[in-house]
Amino acid sequence: MNLFVFEFVSGGGFCDKPLPLALAREGDMMLRGLLADLRELPGVCTTTSRDPRLPPLPGVRAIVPGPGEDGAALYARGAAAADAAWPIAPETGGVLEALARETLHMGKILAGCSPDAIRLTTSKRSTACALRAWGVPCVPTFAHDDVLPPLPGPWVVKPDDGAGCDRVILVPDWRAARDRLAADPRELVAQPWIDGPALSLSLLCDGRGARLLSCNRQHVRVAGGRVTLEAIGVNAVADRNGQLAQLAGRIAAALPGLWGYVGVDFVLTSQGPVVLEINPRLTTSYCGLRQALGINAAALVLGLLEADSAVSSPPPAAGTPAFVSLALDRGD
């Protein structure tokens, strides 16, 4: 199989504008981790793309943007020459959804979530509504036309379609959150701050079910009203009572079309896990899965192309936690 891997930031998505170095570094980490896994798979011939402002990838076939070629055109060119495409891109602005739809429009195999699932999970408000309908505990999410309840404590204001900690602001109370929403009513949502450890799940999904690969600890810094993810402890939290595997299955049932690698951000409260958002794509935690669990996650994902049954759900391997550092502040 000829596979085209497109990491949006490091692979040409910003070829016509300044390159955000922190995002490029994070994207490059994910790309290198994925390419290392794919290199081990017999019968898989991988091509990627590369922003010429970044160092070349040794031993990897890469295409570069041509004169006047933007990221969308570059992706279409790479996917056209392949049997399958694996896009890695932010959900913001519908970028990932557009790449997924283009893949299917070209008649290629999409190694990722369905466009409809991406569209749903791109919106934090829509995601919360879908999860609540299935009884999945999730953070209350409010838009400008909602009445914010006077809950005590700080609130978080963020873009409804934001990725990661991008433009995430911590405000002191619900009134400040209401004022922030009023200032930018089209884009923002507000959520009450949830106390508890910031964690994430790495899942393998098949469109109907989910297998829990690891539970990861997020090292988050809050300073000056800004929230920054600084590092991740991959497989640092054990699912001792099986509640996280159950959560994974409920999320997959509530959001059909999740396929391949999917990330889930959540907070573990005294009452149990509370979901913050769903990432329908590779996340930085992928970079530590091989070291932590000794698995080739790319092989598991591509293996779903030939599997007829739902994802099996064995308990995650014990392994050893792997530490993934994000040295640069992505909010700068």
Describe this structure in words.
The chain has about 325 residues and is of the alpha/beta class. It has ten helices and 14 strands. A hairpin with a 2-residue loop joins strand 10 (about 210-225) and strand 11 (about 225-235). The radius of gyration is 19 Å and the shape is globular. The mean pLDDT is about 90.
Please outline the helices and strands.
Layout: E1 2-7, H1 9-13, H2 21-39, E2 45-49, E3 61-63, H3 71-80, E4 84-88, H4 95-105, E5 109-110, H5 115-122, H6 124-133, E6 155-159, E7 169-171, H7 174-183, E8 188-192, E9 198-206, E10 210-223, E11 226-234, H8 243-254, E12 259-269, E13 272-279, H9 289-293, H10 297-303, E14 322-325
Parallel strand pairs: 1-2, 1-4, 2-3, 4-5
Antiparallel strand pairs: 6-7, 6-8, 9-10, 9-12, 10-11, 11-14, 12-13
Helix pairs in contact: 4-5
